[in-house]
Design goal:
75% helix; 0% strand; elongated
Length: 238
């Protein structure tokens, strides 16, 4: 089976699972709601990040989406069926990750634009710290960041072959470690995947990384996770 039919098959798997559709909806809902709450109580320190604060919670849904899409293959012999249809494991994994990335990117960009619009209205006069260019950059950065985090989770799941283990690693990391190191800006903490990627959501930032270089760091983490997942897939029996 070629790449395009394999991609179509993987997309069917995702869109026919209600839980996956709900998880995508949760990406948008969690991001917008928590961003609205943060913007309503924002100060003048970094109003742009206040408008996108909910991404810290929306990313959990994106991670869950990427995790469950891959973890389902390791249950009930589903992977053996998938590889029977697409024997080339690299091609199958590329189709799987593409089927994960495209809907998350679409939802992520819609989430970014809606979050920016809602945040701008909520902040009112406090938007003087950023203009249309900064808002659009953050909206696009939001979509790219959520996509990269979903793919990072997909790659890690392929390595550990367990959705529970992946979520047990990533969720505490994103919700606890990131906040613990939050005051360590300008240090090695800025190179963590979530800290680096979220620079694109800030109007002002310290440290050597900028919005796009920060997303590049996150992309490198994601590429490493996907490469490790592909290697693991080739080395282990289905």
């Amino acid at each position: 089976m070629g790449f395009t039919p394999a991609l179509h098959a993987e997309w069917i798997k995702i869109r026919t699972l209600r839980s996956q559709t709900v998880t995508l909806g949760a990406v948008l809902l969690a991001t917008v709601v928590f961003s609205l709450l943060a913007a309503a109580d924002a100060d003048d320190t970094d109003p742009l990040f206040s408008a996108f604060f909910g991404v810290s919670f929306g990313q959990i849904a994106a991670v869950a989406f990427g995790t469950t899409a891959v973890a389902a293959e390791f249950q009930g012999g589903a992977l053996r069926v998938s590889l029977a249809a697409v024997p080339r494991r690299g091609r199958w994994f590329a189709a799987k990750t593409t089927a994960i990335a495209l809907p998350v990117l679409a939802v992520g960009l819609a989430t970014g634009l809606l979050t920016w619009a809602v945040g701008r209205e909520t902040l009112g006069g406090r938007t003087a710290g950023f203009g249309t260019a900064e808002g659009l950059r953050a909206a696009v950065g939001c979509g790219l960041y959520l996509t990269l985090m979903a793919l990072l989770a997909a790659g890690l799941t392929a390595v550990v072959r367990s959705g529970v283990a992946t979520l047990g690693i990533l969720v505490p990391f994103l919700l606890i470690v990131s906040f613990v190191v939050g005051d360590m800006s300008g240090s090695v903490a800025d190179l963590l995947p979530d800290r680096a990627g979220q620079i694109a959501l800030h109007g002002t930032w310290d440290g050597a990384l900028g919005p796009w270089t920060g997303l590049t760091v996150t992309a490198l983490w994601t590429a490493a996770a996907l490469a490790a997942g592909a290697w693991r897939l080739r080395r282990r029996d289905a």
